[in-house]
Specification:
It is a single chain. The protein has helices at 13-23, 54-60, 72-85, 98-107, 121-137, 159-172, 176-179, 230-244, 255-259; strands at residues 3-8, 28-34, 50-51, 65-68, 89-91, 113-115, 142-149, 180-181, 196-202, 209-216, 219-226, 252-253. It is α/β, with parallel strands linked by helices. The strands form two sheets. A seven-stranded parallel beta sheet has the order 3-2-1-4-5-6-12, with helices on both faces. Helix 5 (121-137) packs parallel to helix 6. It starts with a strand and ends with a helix. The chain binds NADPH dihydro-nicotinamide-adenine-dinucleotide phosphate (NDP) and the ligand O=C(O)C1=N[C@H](C(=O)O)C[C@H](O)C1. The ligand O=C(O)C1=N[C@H](C(=O)O)C[C@H](O)C1 binds at residues 94, 117-118, 149, 153, 158-160, 208. NADP(+) binds at residue 39.
Length: 261
């Protein structure tokens, strides 16, 4: 049976990509689209229920999985509605505060919820192997992350950079929030050994680049992931929706749970 899908933020960069790919996916039915802004143009002609809020569309469409790439506030609204109605939801939004992430985890006890700051197979496989590299290189290597995104991106550092940072920090037995350095300016002194730098570049239409640097004595390793298209993230989210419809509430699921990496 086809999996019915509602796309929240359907007029956005990710939303529009998801609508296009979902329409040609033989395992999915586009069951509803939501967009509150002027970017809704064209969505009403898709042949499925359209609304300016998710609550409105959920009243007419039952049993669908929601995919949400919007804003932290809007995605929290989605998580609350999902918890109230037992609706499964895949969230790709980034920029949540730690408290907002706790709220997502709490909502995941009531409904199947999935959140990943990056839905690509590449980044999530990298996250699985990075700890080994950190441990094998040992403490003499300075760890730095650089991310580059398009000039419309609202949050920094990117959700992916923060996730990579958490992964590196955990491999060193650190807490990222205690070791992260997101800005350097002025007479900053020598680099502390126990630090992870997270640097942000913004410009043009860059889809999403992340580089992890391992600076050692006399050498360095650079590991770079470049997303060539938003379709990479959208395909990951569609795969997550199909997987999530068979999962039970209880935990906030991630790409690692689905990919088993
Ligand atoms: N996990 C991943 O793999 C990826 C995550 N992202 C993240 O996804 C998010 C969206 O990115 P992107 O598509 O580029 O952003 P866009 O701004 O292009 O799209 C977001 C859309 O959501 C709409 N929106 C805002 N509030 C609501 C609401 N309450 N209900 C429904 N829709 C709403 C926006 O409308 P309006 O224009 O009025 O604000 C906009 O159309 C960001 O947090 C980004 O970092 C992006 C790519 C990949
Ligand atoms: O806003 C984006 O575009 C992206 N956001 C995600 C992030 O913050 O990591 C993922 C991807 O890099 C694109």
């Amino acid at each position: 049976m086809k999996c019915p899908l509602i796309i929240n933020g359907a007029g956005g960069r990710m939303g529009a990509t998801l609508v296009r790919l979902a329409q040609s996916d033989s395992e999915l039915t586009l069951a509803g689209v939501v967009e509150p802004s002027s970017r809704a143009q064209g969505l009403e002609g898709l042949g499925c229920p359209f609304g300016k809020s998710l609550g409105e569309v959920l009243k007419t469409v039952k049993g669908a999985v929601v995919i949400d790439f919007t804003s932290p506030e809007a995605s929290l609204g989605t998580a609350r509605l999902a918890a109230e109605t037992g609706t499964a939801a895949v969230i790709g939004t980034t920029g949540f505060t730690p408290e907002q992430l706790d709220e997502l985890r709490a909502a995941a006890r009531q409904a199947p919820l999935f959140w990943a700051p990056n839905m690509s197979v590449g980044i999530n496989t990298l996250l699985a192997v990075l700890p080994e590299l950190v441990k094998k290189l040992g403490p003499a290597y300075d760890l730095e992350i650089m991310e580059i995104h398009h000039n419309k991106k609202k949050d920094a550092p990117s959700g992916t950079a923060l996730k990579l940072g958490e992964c590196l920090a955990e491999a060193r037995g650190w807490e990222l929030r205690e070791k992260a350095c997101c800005c350097r300016e002025g007479i900053i002194g020598e680099r502390p050994r126990e630090e992870i730098g997270l640097q942000t570049l913004r410009g043009g239409d860059v889809v999403g680049d992340h580089t992890i640097y391992f600076f050692g004595p006399g050498e360095r390793i650079e590991v770079t992931h470049r997303a060539h298209s938003r379709e990479t993230f959208a395909q990951g989210a569609l795969r997550a929706a199909k997987w999530l419809k068979d999962q039970k509430p209880g935990k906030l699921y991630s790409m690692a749970d689905m990919l088993r990496v």
